[in-house]
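Please predict the structure of the following assembly.
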Amino acid sequence: MVNLQVTMDDKTLKNILERQQYKEGFVTDVEQEYVPKGLNEDIIRLISAKKEEPQWLLDFRLDAFRKWQKMTEPSWGHLKLPKIDYQDIIYYAAPKKDSERPKEIDPALMETFNKLGIPLREREVLAGVKAKESQVAVDAVFDSVSVTTTFRKTLAEKGIIFCSFSEAVKEHPDLVRKYLASVVPSGDNFFAALNSAVFSDGSFCYIPKGVKCPMELSSYFRINASGTGQFERTLIVADEGSQLSYMEGCTAPMRDENQLHAAVVEIVVEQDADVKYSTVQNWYPGDENGRGGILNLVTKRGICKGSGSHLSWTQVETGSAITWKYPSTILKGDNSSSEFYSVAVTNNYQQADTGTKMIHIGRNTRSRIVSKGISAGHSENSYRGLVKVNPGAAGAKNFSQCDSLLIGSNCGAHTFPVIQSSCPTAIVEHEATTSKISENQLFYCNQRGIGPEDAVGLIVNGYAKEVLSRLPMEFAVEAQKLLQVSLEGSVG
Amino acid sequence: MSEVLLEIKGLHAEVEGKEILKGVDLAIRRGEVHAVMGPNGAGKSTLSAVLTGRPDYTVTAGSVTFAGRDLLTMSPEERSWAGLFLSFQYPIEIPGVSITNFMKAAINARRKAAGQEEMKPAEFLKLMKEKMAFVQMKGEFAKREVNVGFSGGEKKRNEIFQMAMLDPTLAILDETDSGLDVDALKIVAQGVNDLRSPEKAAIIVTHYQKLLEYVVPDVVHVLKEGRIVRTGGRELVDIIEKEGFEKIDG
C-alpha cells in the first residue's frame, strides 16, 4: 500500500488558499459619532458620561484603567502579536441617532443585519419558516452600541431579562452591580482590565429561578467603523434550576489594518442551573498574505456556583488574524460539571492560541474537554489548557482530548496541556492525536466524483463532527459551511 | 460487435521512479466483463490506479480512450463523472462522515457537474434503501462512518453498494474478492452480475479465480511484469488454476 500520510502538493494548497471568500467583509455607510482617539481617564469619563452611567460604574472603570496601566501584554501565547498602539485606537464609535426619532433603528443598520442573516424585526422572525421552538432572540451590537434586542417582551413575561448592557445598568443596577466582575475581576489580565476600563456595550441576561428559557438567546457583534476597536461585555446569570442556551456570532469588514476586539464574557450558574454557550467566531481573518484581520483577545469565564450546576462551552473559531481566548469554568459547586468543545480553524497566516481552564473546587466535579484544531496554509494553531484540581475536590474527574489536523506542510499545530492535581482521588485523563488529511482519503473522495474542495470540506466536517453536533441547529449548518469556506484554497 | 468503451494503447507507467507498466494494450467493448489476472507485483493495482488517475502514478507513454475521450487528461473526479468506478482493494476510512453524507456528496457532485439540480431527499433515501437491500446491508449502515470499524467483508460490500449507487459505465474491481468469505463473495458477485448490461462493462482485477466462479468473464488477460502476456476466454482461468502463472507467457 502507498504511504498513508502524504501532504498535498503546493499547487493544491495554493488553490484552496486563494479561493477564500469572506462574504461578510462589507462596510455599512452610516454617520457615526466617535470619542477622540487615544486612551486616558478623560476618555473613560467621556464614555461613561455618554452612557449616563452611575458613579460606581465610572469608579469601576477608572480602577480597572489604573490596574491596566501597571500591566503588560501577556507574552506566553504561541503567537506573534503585532505591536498595538493603544493611543491610536478610537474606543467608542456609535451610529448617530435620528434626533427626531431616537427610538427607531436606522434602516441602514436594519439592512446590515438582514444581510448578515440576523433579522431585527420580530415579525419577520415570526413570519419566517422557522418553527416556534427554533426562534432566536438577538441582542445586536454595532461597533460600540447595542442597536436593539428582540423578543424582550415575550421573554419578560417569563421574568427573563434580556437587554443591552447599558440598559441593564439603568434598569437593573443591583443585579449588574452584584455580578459584574464577579467571575472575571477587572485586574484578571491585561485585556480584561482594558475591557473593564473602556467597555461600551454588550448583552445582559438574567434567567430567574426555575425558568427554562423558551428560545435561544444570542448576541451578534458587528465591527463596522475603521480605526476603532470593539470592547463589549456579556453578563449572563442563570438562577437556581434555570436553563439557557446562548449563542454568539460576529463579523467585521475586510480591511488592511488590524482591529482590536477585547471582550469579556461572564457567566454565573447557580444551583442545578444549566447553561450552554455556543460561539461561531467569524471575524475577518486577514487576507492571504496575513494583512489585516481582527485581533481577538477575549476573556470568557463561567462559574458553576451552586451544586449540580452545569456549563457547556462550544466554540467554532474560523475567523480573526489572532485568536487568544480560553473559555473557562470554575467548578465550585459540588457535583457541578462543565464541558468545552472546540473547533479552531486557521488558514493562510492566521494564528490561534485557544483552549480552556477547568478549575475543580467542589466535590465530584466533572469536566470534559474536546478540542479539534485544523491548520492550513502558513497558520499556527495551538491548544492551551489547564486542568486544575484543588485538594478539596474529592472524586473530581476530567477527560481531555486534543486532536490536531494538518492540511499541507507549512502550518503548525501545538498542544500545551497543563494538569495540576492536588487531590489523590481525582481522575484526570488526557489524549492527543495529530493527523494529516491523507492523499488516500482525498483520492477516495475524488474517485467517487467529489472534487478536492468538497472533499476537504467533507473530511474536515467529519473530523469536527463531535463538536459540531453540540451546536444548536441554527448554528450547526452555518458552522459546517464556514469550515469549508475557511479552508477554501487549501487543496486541489 | 458492440462499440469499444475503453482502449488502452502502449501504456507505460511508473510510481516513485520505478516503471511498473511496460506497454499494456487492452480493448474492452460495451457489454463485456474482462478479468485481469496475474501474480503479485505484476502491475494489476497500478493499472487500476492509472486508469482512475491516482496522483502518485505517472504515465510515461501510451494512451487511454474512454467512451471516445482522452482519459489521461481528465482529473479523477472527471473520470468518475464520465462513468468510471473503482472498487478499492483497500477501502479508505473517513472518520465522522456517514455513508449517507458521503453518497449524497458523490451523487450531487456528479449532478452539479452535469448541470442538474441536487437529488431530492426523498428520491435519495429511496435509492439508498434500494441499494442497501441489494448488498444486504441493514438500515443502520447508512449512519455508519465510511469504512470506520468495518470488517473486511463489510468494506467490500460497501464498495459494491457505492458502485450500485453511482451506476458506472465501467467498473474496475481491484482484488474485491480478497479476504471475503463465501457469503460476502456471493453478494459481491451478484452485485456485479446485476450491473451487467449491453451498455456497460467491468474489469475484474484478481489473482484468484474465486470470484470468477460467480462472475463469468468474457475475456481473460494475464498480466505479468507490466505486460499482458496472454488473452483468452474463460478456459484461461482453469489453466491458471491448474498450472499457476509461471508457465503462462506470450
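The interface with chain B takes residues 1-2, 6, 9, 438-441, 443-452, 454, 458-459, 461-466 of chain A (CB under 8 Å). Chain A has 13 helices and 23 strands.
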